Amino acid sequence: MIAHQAIPVRSAASAGRAKLVVRCHGNGASSGTLQVGQKVKVVSSIKVYHAPKHPEGIDLNGMEGTLIKDVTHYKGKILSANFPFEVEFHLPSNEKPTKFKVHLGEDEIQPL
After folding, report:
1. Of the candidates 29, 33, 37, 32, which has an alpha carbon nearest to the alpha carbon of residue 87?
2. Rounded to two decimals, what is the model's pTM?
3. If DSSP states are collapsed to H, E and C, what string results for the chain?
4. Would 3 be classed as within a structural domain?
5. Tens digits of per-residue pLDDT, 54-70?
6. Would you say residue 74 lies in a domain?
7. Residue 105 domain-assigned?
8. What is the tally of structural domains in the chain?
9. What CATH code is carried by the domain that includes residue 106?
10. Residue 87: what pLDDT?
11. What domain range is 67 assigned to?
12. Cα dist from 26 to 29, 78, 79, whole Å
């Protein structure tokens, strides 16, 4: 029989730090309401700086695009990506139309 000695441990609260409670739900997969190839609309104010010909950035709120990839599943496994939906947008131009892609979360887009 092995004897254990009790060692006093300071709690986070006594060390001057607030306690942290994390509640998780779900398994990292999307809800299934969005399908690849579906038209979607951005419902949040999101500014991106990688859009062609817009070095000052562009706000995506209200823009419509096409869902081209859902990265919550990979080789049969469920992944918990922060922004699992890859959406392609087309910017009108006097020259040829320009395209760019953005990774978005499920709460930032809605199906059309």
Report:
1. 37
2. 0.69
3. CCCCCCCCCCCCCCCCCCCCCCCCCCCCCCCCCCCCCCEEEECCCCEECCCCCCCCCEECCCCEEEEEEECCEECCEECCCCCCEEEEEEECCCCCCEEEEEEECHHHEEEC
4. no
5. 889 999 999 999 999 99
6. yes
7. yes
8. 1
9. 2.30.30.50
10. 97
11. 39-111
12. 7, 11, 11
In this predicted model, which residue has the larger pLDDT, 92 or 99?
A: 99
Query: How many CB atoms sit inside 10 A of residue 98's CB?
Result: 14
Per-residue pLDDT at 102: 96
Going by C-alpha positions, the residue among 79, 43, 84 that lies closest to residue 67 is 84
Question: Partners of 91 in the beta sheet?
Answer: 98
For the record, the structure tokens of 8 come out as 């006093």
Interval 16-66: pLDDT, tens: 566 665 555 455 556 678 899 999 999 999 999 999 888 899 999 999 999
Q: Is residue 64 part of a domain?
A: yes
The neighbour count for residue 108, using CB atoms within 10 Å, is 19
Residue count of the chain, please give it.
Answer: 112
